[in-house]
Amino acid sequence: MPFLKTYKLNLVILLLALVICFFINISLGSINIPLRSIFSTLLGSNTENETWRYIVLNFRIPKAITAILTGCSLSLSGLLMQTLFRNPLAGPFVLGISSGASLGVAVLVMGASLLGGITSSTIAGNATLAIAASIGSFAVLSVVIIVASRVRDTMALLIIGLMFGSITAAIVSVLSYFSTMENLQQYIFWSYGSLGNLSWNQIILFSVFFFAGIVLVIFSIKPLNSLLLGENYARSMGLDIKKSRYLIIFATSILAGSATSFAGPIAFVGLAVPHLTKQIFNTANHQILIPAVLIYGALLMLICDTIAQLPNSAYTLPINAITSMVGAPVVIWLLIRKRKMIF
Fold this sequence. Notes:
Blueprint: H1 2-27, H2 35-43, H3 50-85, H4 97-110, H5 112-115, H6 126-150, H7 154-178, H8 181-191, H9 200-227, H10 231-236, H11 241-263, H12 269-281, H13 286-308, H14 319-338
């Protein structure tokens, strides 16, 4: 009981921190907007500056929501992969899903010059890039599911996923070699990751994928807790390992694939946030971990995005670099402080 009280108190504190970070993220940027103007905009009242209202409604809020959805999706994907493979280094990149998204964009952007007649201006739309990334993720997912039906060992599936990642990276390298400078530059910018390019319609589509993944995760909680004891023990408890594995892989693919499709490849979050949460909550129970991982993932992405947009500056740093620079030292410090990894 004392643990549950502490857990609920920590969740409330985290939610409050998330709300505060959400408004700070909206307020800061190349133009700093006072919080009272943000509240007036959200409440539909008159604001002292109509330009601020336009910026808040069409740029800042969509970007903050994208950060929350991306952080939640990647961190939850990491938790699922680490439990399924019983490997603390597993993450959304492990099954090659993120690599598949990168391959889809690389084929679209850098393969255009090889196909001829298509210029980069015709494929520069963010929606087009998201569709290409989704197709790439789905293609790799399909291959992984076919392989998963033939491979009984989960560790073998982990290695196969890493091999798929190597194959897609090799194809991207070949495409880069033959690509024009303009197309290569466009692909590199996409690979930096970006949270600020989505329209409201794209955010709605992103949300649909996110909630579909969450529903699958809810059905995976019991299998995940059983898998903590090992596949043999879980099987002796009556768990259908094959069915559970498909369910977890589908959930991860939907969450990680959609996040990469809409925000680009973002490293570190999926790997680090589950470890961070386990160290703080000191448990491996997924019923407790999943809500905490969602909030921590959203919180980390909002903090990283606030730093990346360099308040009072016209420059914006790549979000992919900031997530690693900010998060990695925190995890190292926690592991040194605890002196033991909970897994």
